[in-house]
Amino acid sequence: MFNDIGPLELLTIVVIAVLVFGPDKLPKVIQDVMRTIRKIREFSESAKQDIRNELGPEFKDFEFEDLNPKTFIRKQLDNDELGLKEIRNGFDLKKEMAEVTDAVNSRDTEASSSSSPSSNSGSGGRVDMTKKPEEPGNDDRPPFDADAT
């Protein structure tokens, strides 16, 4: 519950509690807080048990922690009834991307070898993705006028 509280923060809380409640009332306040936390835990466990009873015997293995999507997926991957580990281990993303890159580069070199040598202009068979593609016949468009819009 308080896993992320460090020693300095805990010391600060204790000092503030002593200053606010005083050393005489502090033990009673701690007992009251512990009693309240215990009652809240008992209430939550009772509510969980009531929900399990109402769901019936088919949900006897139901855990409320499974409602967390990360926990649910982790549990399903460990179960591996669908063969997901085999699929995940059989798929190599780097290999797939290398094949796609090789296919694109070979197609690009074929297209550049069939076109005129002046169109290559020393790009080394690579496509410049920063330049917009030139559209033939669109030179007759009027320039953009920001005031007209």
UniProtKB/TrEMBL annotation:
Give the CC-aspect GO terms: TAT protein transport complex
Q: What is its main location?
A: membrane
User: Where are the residues of the annotated region Disordered?
Assistant: 99-149
Q: Where is the composition biased (Low complexity)?
A: 112-121
Q: Which Pfam families match?
A: TatA_B_E
Q: How does it sit in the membrane?
A: Single-pass membrane protein
Q: Which domain of life is it from?
A: Bacteria
Q: Where is the composition biased (Basic and acidic residues)?
A: 128-149
Record keywords, A-Z:
Cell membrane, Membrane, Protein transport, Translocation, Transmembrane, Transmembrane helix, Transport
- Name where it's found: Cell membrane; Membrane
List GO molecular-function terms, semicolon-separated: protein transmembrane transporter activity
Q: Give any single GO term for biological process.
A: protein transport by the Tat complex
Q: How does it assemble?
A: The Tat system comprises two distinct complexes: a TatABC complex, containing multiple copies of TatA, TatB and TatC subunits, and a separate TatA complex, containing only TatA subunits. Substrates initially bind to the TatABC complex, which probably triggers association of the separate TatA complex to form the active translocon.
Relate the protein's function as given in its record. Answer: Part of the twin-arginine translocation (Tat) system that transports large folded proteins containing a characteristic twin-arginine motif in their signal peptide across membranes. Together with TatC, TatB is part of a receptor directly interacting with Tat signal peptides. TatB may form an oligomeric binding site that transiently accommodates folded Tat precursor proteins before their translocation.
Instruction: Report the family membership.
Output: Belongs to the TatB family.
PANTHER family for the chain: SEC-INDEPENDENT PROTEIN TRANSLOCASE PROTEIN TATA, CHLOROPLASTIC
Task: Indicate what this protein is called per its UniProt record.
Answer: Sec-independent protein translocase protein TatB
Q: Which gene holds the coding sequence for this protein?
A: tatB
